[in-house]
Every structure is written in C-alpha cells, then in structure tokens.
Design goal:
Layout (H helix, E strand, L loop, with lengths): L1 E6 L4 H14 L3 E7 L19 E5 L5 H10 L4 E4 L6 H6 L2 H22 E2 L2 E2 L4 E7 L23 H20 L3 E6 L1 E3 L8 H10 L4 E4 L5 E6 H14 L5 E4 L4 E3 H15 L15 E4 L14 H7 L7 H14 L1 H7 L3 H10 L3
Parallel strand pairs: 1-2, 1-4, 2-3, 4-7, 7-8, 8-12, 9-11, 10-14
Antiparallel strand pairs: 5-6, 11-13
Helix pairs in contact: 1-7, 2-4, 4-5, 6-8, 8-10
The structure holds nicotinamide-adenine-dinucleotide and thymidine-5'-diphospho-beta-D-xylose.
Enzyme class: lyase
Protein name: dTDP-glucose 4,6-dehydratase
Pfam family, one: GDP_Man_Dehyd
C-alpha cells in the first residue's frame, strides 16, 4: 500500500494521473489530492473517483507551510508528485507574479516538508520518492534541427518556463545537498481529456464548436512535440517506481507538428465525425483558420529525445497520434457539459482580453 500526495490533482494532467493510479492500483494506493482550485482546477475532472474510499481531496495551496506540514504529520506519505503550477505561457506574459509564487516558492515548501518527515538522521527513509513534473520548455527553443536531451542546458525564454526551470534547480539542489530521493520529468506538450481550453488543442476544438475562428499565432509554423496524457501518466508511474534517485527523465512521443498541421487535422477529423453527433455545427470550413498577432517571444520548436527513459526504464509511448486526436475529439464532443461549465463567465473574459482585436 502506497500513499501518494498528488498536488494539482484537479488540473488536466494531475486528474488524469489520479484516475490512472486509482484504476491501476485500486486498494493498494491511497491518494491525497492537494489543490488550490484556481481557474484551472476542476473537481468535475475527478467525478468518476470522488467517492473512492482510497481518495481524499484537500483544498489548499502548496505555498501554505502549515497546511502542507499537517498533511505530512497526519499521513504517512510515500510519494509526492507535484503537478501544481500555473501552467499557461500566455498568462505568464500578461502577469508573472503568481508563476514565481506557486511554481518556485511552492516547490520549496513541498521539498522542505517532505525532507522534515522523510529524513531520519543523515538518511532518508526507504522507498520514498518526490517527483517534480517539469516541462520540455525549460530547455528553451530549437531551430530546425536537434532534440532536447537531459543534458541540454536550461535556457527558458518566457516567465512560465523560467519559473519551471528555477523549480528544477531547487529540486536538484535537494538531491545534491541532502540526498533527497527526487526525480524530475520533462514532458512535451500533452493533449487529451480534461485539458482546459486556454491551451491550443482544446481552444481550437471549443472555437470550432462555437462557430469561432481558430486563432493561429504568427505564421502557424511553430512546432510542438505532442504526447497523449495517458502515455505521460504511464511514464510518471514508471519513474516513481523505477527512476534512479537524482535523475531527470525526458518524456515524449516523437510527434512534432506545426500548429497549422494540427489545426487542419482537427478540421478534417471533426468534419468526419461531427455528423454522428447532435451538434448544430456539422461542418468546419478550412476558412476557420485565422492568423493572429504572434505570442511575444514565441518559442519556435520543441522536440524531445526520450531515449533515456526508453533505454533505462523500458517506457515507450503507446498511443498513435492520429488515433489519440480522434479519441480526444470524441471525448470533447461527448462531454459538452464539462466544456460548457468552464467556458462561461471568467473564461470568456479571459478569451476576449486575449483574442479580441488581436
Ligand atoms: P493545469 O493548469 O491544468 O493544472 C494545474 C493545477 O494546479 C490546477 O488544478 C490548479 O488548481 C492547481 N494549482 C495551481 N496553483 C496551485 C497552488 N498554489 N497550490 C495547489 N494547487 C495549485 O496544468 P497541467 O497542464 O495539468 O500541468 C500540470 C503540470 O505539468 C504543471 O506543472 C506543468 O508545468 C506540467 N506540464 C504540463 C504540460 C502540458 O502540456 N500541459 C507539459 C509538460 C509539463
Ligand atoms: O490560441 C493559440 N494559438 C496558437 O497558435 C494558442 C493558445 C496557442 N497557439 C500556439 C502556441 C504554441 O506554439 O500553439 C502552440 C501550443 O500552445 P499552448 O497550448 O499554449 O502550449 P505551449 O505554449 O507550447 O506550452 C505547453 O507545453 C508545455 C503547456 O501549456 C505548458 O504547460 C507545458 O509546460
């Protein structure tokens, strides 16, 4: 029986991971989900497991030392997996203060409390693990060639990725200084169910369904390397149980695509499947694509070399990109209420301030 402290478990990846672990290990896992429920946190992501006897939700901030201390005091935590973060680059360009607070100060609080309760003399108790969920963005931006490897120097270029890189350095320092059993994972762009529609793929799906244009920043030729969230969750599980303390693992599925390719693919697949659904929109025109003002400092290309986790931990991605996208489109079409709930009110304020007249 392992007790997991999952932070940010009501967000996109954290909720997928929580459900994945409970489904896989069931009564052999106990999950405590600590989440502040920011605009991105949504308890509806966890409806299928909320009544599970081995699941407990705590609303709170990872920066709250008293609260985090009490969680460690009252439970024997085996694993900490930190998903909690401010995660959207565009928001960090508008205002970066909360990014530094949550992503940098928050990790220090979590590390200090884990250290306090896990350390016994000079050593750590056996079988504990602290995994920091980082991102490929910490490596900066690639041109046409090359891949991010674990040894690639950190060179973050926007306030979000800078805060994630700062956290990585702090996490690594706890390994080198205290021998704390940490791992860092750096994954590429995720897609899949429950992703908040400020991110590119759910945003353009939601726009299509609401007869809005698909905004492509700049010339639409920036490249991201996509992975289905389920493949990411499996990789984190493998790192938790088999990752060597102190090591960083890149996670990716070799799906490098220009943003415009993704937009065209989504139009193609939506036009194939929409007639089977009860939506007033039945056809998405290729003219739905609209080029808008570029993101400031827009990173050109991300591409992950994940041979380390493949060779050392025997993980590889399993979900084919085209199949994963179709599955994701169907999920959004079948979960109209989930999408409607989070795209009224505050979301439209954000959307209008970002995109109107862009
Ligand atoms: P998300 O924005 O969907 O979810 C973040 C969650 O953290 C939300 O539930 C939010 O309420 C919670 N949270 C925010 N601040 C908090 C705080 N101070 N205390 C407690 N909870 C707080 O993000 P996501 O896309 O699921 O990303 C999860 C993690 O994975 C992040 O650390 C992100 O940097 C990393 N990551 C994301 C991607 C991606 O493509 N989405 C890729 C690689 C790495
Ligand atoms: O409206 C849009 N139009 C557009 O062209 C949006 C929201 C995005 N884009 C572009 C920008 C990027 O090139 O699409 C690409 C993907 O954008 P995002 O979904 O905002 O992701 P990105 O900036 O690549 O960062 C993501 O991957 C790394 C996650 O948001 C991070 O949390 C993760 O660490």
């Amino acid at each position: 029986m392992k007790t997991y402290l999952i932070t940010g478990g009501a967000g996109f990846i954290g909720s997928n991971f929580t459900s994945y672990i409970l489904k896989k290990y069931d009564k052999n896992s106990m999950i405590i989900n600590l989440d502040k429920l920011t605009y991105a946190g949504n308890l509806n992501n966890l409806k299928s497991i909320e009544k599970h006897t081995n699941y407990k939700f705590i609303k709170g901030d990872i920066c709250d030392e008293t609260l985090v201390d009490s969680i460690f005091k009252n439970h024997t935590i085996d694993y900490v997996i930190n998903f909690a973060a401010e995660s959207h680059v565009d928001r960090s360009i508008m205002d970066s203060s909360i990014f530094t607070k949550t992503n940098v100060l928050g990790i220090q609080v979590l590390l200090d409390k884990a250290k306090k309760y896990w350390q016994s003399g000079e050593c750590f108790k056996p079988n504990k693990k602290f995994v920091q969920i980082s991102t490929d963005e910490v490596y900066g931006s690639l041109d046409r060639d090359g891949y991010f490897r674990e040894e690639t120097p950190l060179s973050p270029r926007n306030p979000y990725s800078a805060s994630k890189a700062a956290a990585d350095l702090i996490v690594n320092s706890y390994y080198h200084t205290h021998k704390m059993p940490i791992n860092i994972t750096r994954c590429s762009n995720n897609y899949g169910p429950y992703q908040f529609p400020e991110k590119f793929i759910p945003l353009i799906i939601n726009n299509c369904l609401n007869n809005r244009k698909m905004p492509l920043y700049g010339d639409g030729k920036n490249i991201r390397d996509w992975i289905h969230v389920e493949d990411h969750c499996r990789a984190i599980d493998v790192v938790l149980s088999h990752g060597k303390p102190g090591e960083t693992y890149n996670i990716g599925a070799h799906n490098e695509k220009e943003n415009i390719e993704i937009a065209k693919l989504i139009i193609k697949y939506l036009n194939e499947i929409l007639p089977n659904y009860n939506y007033s929109t039945k056809y998405i025109s290729p003219d739905s694509i609209e080029f808008v003002k570029d993101r400031k400092g827009h990173d050109k290309r991300y591409a992950i070399d994940s041979s380390k986790i493949k060779n050392q931990l025997n993980w590889h991605s399993e979900i084919d990109f085209n199949e994963g996208i179709i599955k994701t489109l169907k999920w959004y079409l079948e979960n109209e209420n989930w999408l409607k709930d989070i795209t009224s009110g505050e979301y439209m304020k954000y959307y209008n301030s970002m995109y109107n007249g862009r």
